[in-house]
Amino acid sequence: MTKKLPAGESLYTGAEIKVKADSSIKKSEIERVNAELAEFVRPKPNTAIMGFPYRVWLYYVMGEPRKPKGFRSWFRRKFGEPPVLASRGVINANTKQINVLLNNQGFFRTTTTGDLVDQKRLAKAVYTINLKPQYLLDSIHFETDGDTSVFGKALLNTQKRTLLVKGNPYNYETLVAERNRIERELKQRGFYYFRPDYVIFKADSMSKKTKVDISVEIKPNVAQVAKKIYYINDIHVIADYGDLRVDTTNIKQTNYQGIDIQDPLNRYRPKVFADAIGFRHGRNYSSRFQDVSLSRLINLKNFKFVKNKFELVSRSDSALLDVYYYLTPQKHKSLQAELSGSSKSNNFNGTDIAVNWRNLNLFRGAEIFTISASTGLQFQVGGGANAINNSTYKVATSLTLPRFAVPFIKFNPTRNQSLPSTTFNVNYEYINRGNMYRTTSLSGSLAYDWSQNSTLRHTFTPLSISYVRTFDFSFDYINYMIMFAPQQLGTILDQNTIIPSSIYQFFYNPRPTKSSSFALSGSFEIAGNLASVLAKSANSTNEAQTLFGVGYARYIRSDLDMRYSKTINSKIKWANRVMLGFGLPYGNSNSLPFPKQYIVGGSNSIRAFVARGIGPGAYYASGDNATTFLGAQAGDMKLEMNTELRAKVNDFIQGALFVDAGNVWMYKDEVLYGADGVFGKDFYKQLAVGAGVGLRFDFTYLLLRFDLATPLRKPYLPEAERWVIKDIDFSSSDWRKENLILNIAIGLPF
Known about the structure:
Layout: E1 11-21, H1 27-40, H2 54-61, H3 71-79, H4 88-104, E2 111-119, E3 122-131, E4 136-142, H5 150-157, H6 172-188, E5 199-204, E6 211-218, E7 231-238, E8 254-256, E9 259-262, H7 271-276, H8 287-299, E10 303-312, E11 320-329, E12 333-343, E13 348-359, E14 368-380, E15 389-401, E16 421-433, E17 437-451, E18 456-471, H9 475-484, H10 486-493, E19 497-508, E20 516-527, H11 529-534, E21 546-547, E22 550-551, E23 555-567, E24 572-585, H12 626-629, E25 637-648, E26 653-665, E27 688-698, E28 703-713, H13 733-739, E29 741-746
Parallel strand pairs: 1-3, 4-6, 7-9, 7-11
Antiparallel strand pairs: 2-3, 5-6, 8-9, 10-11, 12-13, 13-14, 14-15, 15-16, 16-17, 17-18, 18-19, 19-20, 20-23, 21-22, 23-24, 24-25, 25-26, 26-27, 27-28, 28-29
């Protein structure tokens, strides 16, 4: 392959980092520096497998393209990769950059040399680093030269939240972040013209060995305008900016709560802008209000472009700013058709066709109204001969108001982080579940959504009500239930249920770091209390209470979902998930209603088992067609854990190794699944465990996933035989047929 390279050139195969460290430096620090530099140096070599640069080979194998848009050109762009050639000039540049990088991290007096080792037209770079001890921060002092003005006091006040901590390593990036933090805090206090480059750091590393004293100061001769607090004068909103249909001459302005609004077509109620804009006349400027106001206007989704401008009031001693918002409206009405693919946790994949109509400003208050109709086919992957095909028809409506629709709760635009919203939903769905039965459901809800800050969001649904009706049970389905699960027959056939509930949810997403990310979400739901007040008691005390002649559910349900991922390097990422679910049925309910129960197994769950193929507990669905006909292995409680090592082969292909574990349990009801299905003190002995490998293809807008998994632990076997690792036999066709599960899905599993 090297024969194809340009004359006199060599293929670059990568870099070798040699760190010669001072004896006082810890081994772990040396390893960290080595790994960071290996990632830092450029260029990166060509993509290779087992050392063979296969994409370079593909680049040359078809020959030189004759046409820029021909097949060969397309093949090169899609599958090939031009060779990365070795260059001594690049090595010299990298040597200088390595010195700069390490000095910025406090490894002062460190030196670097670089060389190019060429053998048979394959060349690698060798960098030798003479690493000196890293300097640590000692004293940190904010210097104001005795300035007792409002600015001087504000600057000293920023020291309370400084990023510079005694004992931490000296780091240039931390100094840059500290400078930006100081600017941000001062701008939040009204110092509109202050800039981060007005802050300087003076470092003294001479007086103490491997320690640095930092003095934070303001540049001398900084203009007084940067040290002055500015206040808001007039606020202007141009609601039709860029609309050529509007005649801007002689436009009458509306003043609402001190905001001048130009809206000649009278599209919006003035309250929309008063709620979105946090500034008020006479209050000091704050960058926080600026950012929040822009975010609110954008999140209204009514405007294509949002532009903000501040103008100093023309007066020699002025400390007043006029604020302008230029808004370019979106088209308020739209009709869309969508063709989509889906992958669900119950191992159902499929396609849907939907038609959506949307109105962005239904009642002139930036309300978003949508109505959609869809139909789709879902097919169960990994179920073999027992796979189920569903057909679904759905109509959904939604109305979202950019405010709390509650009379006694008022929104304060100068305090709240973001606009709250109120959403009304009404949905109808019809499902034909293979040759088993049919289900219809009608549901409605009222939900309030608000963000406490940039990392924490809340949703409260005071009223959610669903009516689920199951009918047209097939003869084969009923016959199977009579033969293999007669204890479940009465419960499954009596599936007409009303589910009235209230739900609280939270979503916590702290800002990710360079190497890791964390997310936590949870919910608490209580159902049936209001219904019990309205319900009419049956004539017999042995009969359940009903609401409008239909049984209703009473339960408490709580969920927690924790996700953590760590970036090992640019190619490898470690992702983890833990899911906990607990349902407590009470009153006239012995278990959660089926739509609210937990299931495990499938492409987004425990991938070594088919959907609904595990649990509850040690329960085992008997019979050849158990998966098809029961299809109801669900529980009131859930524990699931997933860990996955993801490796990026190239921009198109990703690989994965994963282990999944978990199960579901009934809380108290032994009727459906017997005592083996009820949660007990030995629940951990009933965990299912599976492992496997994955291959993913990233098509930019679509990630196609193939996960091949096998059980390591089967909870339904006798306790001493549940670990089945010793039984793994890839050469046996019978073993492969029973134990290898292929999951084909769209998107990552979590």
